User: Fold this.
Amino acid sequence: MSALEKIRFEHVTKTFAIRDETKKRSTKTFTAIEDINFVVNEGEFITLVGPSGCGKSTLLDLLGGLTKPTRGRILIEGKEITGPGLDRGTVFQQYALFPWKTARGNIEFGLEAKGISKREWKEKGDYYLDLVGLIKFADRYPHELSGGMKQRVAIARSLAFNPDVLLLDEPFAALDAQTRETLQSELLRIWKKTGKTIIFITHGIDEAVYLGQRVVVLSPNPGSVRKIVDISLKNRLEDADIHSNPEFVRARHEVWSLLHEPEFLGANI
Ligand SMILES: Nc1ncnc2c1ncn2[C@@H]1O[C@H](COP(=O)(O)OP(=O)(O)OP(=O)(O)O)[C@@H](O)[C@H]1O
Assistant:
């Protein structure tokens, strides 16, 4: 294991028993993902992109320790994941906030369980509210916040636990385009400030290329790694029109082609 290595996927395969329509009361094996192998380095921002059903959520559930691989294993700092843990924080598409708690209450939730003193919760609450730009909205309840604000609270809540790895499952998919772009750059800023290792799942090619230092392109049936594309974009936050940057255009085209090639190969033109 190199000093930089944070997460290692080793021959990760996940199968499910599904109903066999051809035989009554019997099941067959469905392979959702097959032989996934790659390494994520400490502090890296990795995006995973692939068509619907290629196993993105299955991979995230495995990383979160919610399910176990059928074959292979996932290691964090050389230790196999055997269940959920506070070393990983997850942010989902749906905000999953407690409606009866304020923004601050949601962020502070669980710090008590970590054995942190009340004074320290407040400090941490302030720090993370400020990090996501919501200090003025600390006392608002989720229903009084916009979608983007709710997602900021969800990110702050995950970070407040100080996880080593932040897992994000299409966190901006339900937001309008403008809010999504704002949150993408905020997430980059937060990543630069905190140095967390981030794994971000998305359907969006632009989002994957804008955020990821590397984009893991998945292909379906069964889900597997088609290619890992290096994105050598610099100054993502400083470049006002990053979508016109030649490296962005090149990388976007490469990822697009990897995702769409199978359609063209199968087409009778
Ligand atoms: N518990 C389960 N039992 C049976 N099949 C499952 C189960 N969970 C997932 N699958 C199947 O595994 C495959 C991968 O599902 P998964 O939800 O991981 O895909 P995804 O890439 O996240 O899809 P989407 O982008 O649509 O959210 C799908 O074909 C799905 O039907």
